[in-house]
Design a protein that fits this description.
Layout: H1 2-6, H2 12-22, H3 28-43, H4 51-67, H5 77-99, E1 105-109, E2 116-120, H6 126-145, H7 173-190, H8 195-203, H9 208-215, H10 219-226, H11 246-255, H12 259-264, E3 270-271, E4 276-279, E5 291-294, H13 297-309, H14 329-350, H15 361-374, H16 379-386, H17 391-398, H18 408-416, H19 420-427, H20 433-439
Helix pairs in contact: 3-4, 3-6, 4-6, 7-14, 7-18, 9-10, 11-13, 11-15, 15-17, 16-17
């Protein structure tokens, strides 16, 4: 009774209810980690190697800085709105820095090789913000079902901004020509010496400075070659920036590969004898992605020269880096496509033509789909060549209407290395590139 008078006594039922009310809820980081682990166990993918698991991990990483330390019962619209504002401001800062010519960079570690490199930072799009908030809601709904979360699941997705219309970029015929010219120019600038150039250096009586200016190398290099310090029985190491460029562009435009597929190809997948690119299941993201793509004459010529210069074995990458390692998609975007776009735009602007506003590997893939339409390749065949499961996706999303004005047909036929009718036959599987070469 003394405890009652002092207000210290509580019934057993009240103490039990009070204990439930005050029990600390787990943080979002703990709950999300457990939820993701359970999904990996069910999917038989404990190491998280599949695209689905990697995507879920990335979505949760977007919200983790803001949501991670918070107990799950404290997550609400207000916290989600703060996250959205932070991500939009970060994206604006990244875009502003890129426009000023000083892009923000981030350190990236290649899980396959263990090496690190710098890549451009990319802002999180509105669509990706919505997907990240949706993943957070899924974690909370699971906690609610298991009785860990008391109360209603907050509508976190309602804080997401309206998803912007995706920029489905593609190249017009004159832009294709400018890109290919730019690839050739940059490739020539970084190629360094060849055996033909070495023979010229050693047989010529011209000055080292004169030869250096003609060949685009240093006069010191010319003198070392003449003294036999370099290229004396074996080719010297490639220049740092001497990597395949034109053949990469050709393969993306004329083969329609995803950039991950291109990076995943090994030497034998360039089946020049059969006139086709073989995309194996290991290099693509779905069963539909496994396909054989016939190659038109221009691509066949480029790949033949490439295989001569970069011979690759059974398990060696078809499009290697300077050191012979496998290319990475970020490398293709930043070190090959970005400089080529910049140089191509200089040419286009000088000619008074529309510059290329946006160019990614997918830009070139959509250009391939559009060229298939110009060549009158049937939708179902185009679907197969693109590695899709639905022809409407190919038609509605990938195939754009090219401006076939004056000179466009000539540009496309020069790009293909054959007429549009011959390209149609090749892509339809009715004839091989070799047969077209014989006709020519």
């Amino acid at each position: 009774m003394e405890k009652v008078n002092r207000g210290e006594w509580k019934s057993a039922k009240a103490e039990s209810a009070s204990g439930l009310a005050t029990a600390a809820a787990p943080t979002f980081q703990v709950e999300a980690s457990q939820w993701l682990h359970r999904r990996k166990v069910r999917a038989g993918d404990l190491e998280g190697r599949t695209k689905t698991m990697r995507d879920l991990e990335w979505r949760l990483s977007v919200v983790m800085d803001k949501f991670g330390p918070a107990p799950i019962d404290e997550l609400d619209f207000g916290l989600a709105d703060e996250l959205v504002i932070d991500l939009c401001e970060e994206r604006a800062a990244i875009e502003r820095a890129a426009a000023e010519g000083v892009p923000l960079m981030r350190a990236v570690r290649d899980s396959r090789t263990g090496s690190s490199y710098q890549a451009r930072r990319r802002g999180v799009s509105n669509g990706s913000i919505r997907k990240a908030l949706d993943a957070a809601e899924r974690v909370l709904r699971d906690a609610k079902k298991r009785g860990v979360l008391v109360g209603e699941v907050p509508a976190l997705k309602s804080a997401a901004p309206k998803a912007e219309r995706p920029r489905r970029s593609f190249l017009e015929p004159e832009q294709i020509a400018a890109v290919l010219r730019a690839a050739d120019l940059i490739g020539a600038e970084h190629r360094g010496l060849t055996w033909e150039a070495v023979d010229l250096i050693r047989s010529s009586s011209r000055s080292a400075v004169s030869l250096a200016r003609e060949l685009g190398v240093s006069d010191t290099l010319i003198r070392k070659v003449r003294r036999g310090e370099l290229w004396n029985g074996a080719a010297a190491a490639r220049n740092r920036n001497d990597v395949p460029r034109r053949v990469v562009i050709d393969t993306l435009i004329l083969g329609g590969l995803r950039v991950s597929e291109l990076c995943g190809l090994d030497g034998p997948h360039l089946d020049l004898a059969a006139g086709r690119l073989r995309v194996p299941r290991s290099a693509t993201k779905s069963d539909a992605g496994e396909r054989n793509i016939p190659i038109v004459p221009a691509l066949r010529q480029g790949l033949t020269e490439h295989r001569t210069e970069y011979p690759s074995g059974q398990r060696e990458p078809a499009f290697p880096t300077r050191n012979g390692t496998r290319q990475h998609p970020d490398n293709i975007r930043a070190r090959i496509l970005a400089p080529i776009r910049e140089r191509a735009n200089e040419q286009l602007e000088a000619e008074g033509l529309l510059p290329i506003g946006h160019m990614t590997p997918h830009t070139l893939r959509r250009t391939f789909a559009s060229m298939l339409a110009v060549c009158d390749v049937p939708p179902r065949r185009a679907m197969y060549l693109m590695g899709h499961t639905d022809p409407t996706l190919t038609l509605a999303v990938y195939q754009q209407v090219l401006d076939m004005g004056k000179g466009a047909v000539e540009i496309l036929e020069q790009t293909l290395g054959c007429t549009l009718a011959e390209a149609r036959a090749i892509y339809n599987g009715e004839g091989r590139a070799a047969e077209v070469d014989e006709k020519a």
